Amino acid sequence: MPACTHPNKERTSMPISSTDEEWDELVPENFDTTALLRAVDAVDVLREDLNDREGGGPPQLRTDLLLLHQLAMAVFNDGSRSQVAGLFEFAVDLEDQVLGLMTSLEQVQETLSKLTALYPESLSYEDGDVSES
């Protein structure tokens, strides 16, 4: 498969077309294009948790992981028994948040996998020596 190129980027090589057989596979029954819109929605969920905050501050998840590190140091390195419950409650909350992010990423990945599974083999020829259909 070729490297990722933006569809609006000017191409310098001769365009390669798919075969008739490959073209016949590119039908709505084989790929629901609205799945790409759902992937955009999934990315928006990620943005909520991973975007920088107002004023250029780092994402809250980063700040929370650093706070979790402080709690873990207090418990594991300094023997602070009073912070054990807080450490593990916070860790569970962050784990749930990260699992939600992973679910969103998996949705994007599954959508892209369904689309790339339909990649016409004839488009992967780099030499352009493919007969026109």
From TrEMBL:
Keywords tagged on the record: Plasmid
Q: Which domain of life is it from?
A: Bacteria
Region (Disordered) location: 1-22
Q: What is the designated name of this protein?
A: TnpA repressor protein
Question: Which organism is this protein's natural source?
Answer: Pseudomonas syringae pv. tomato
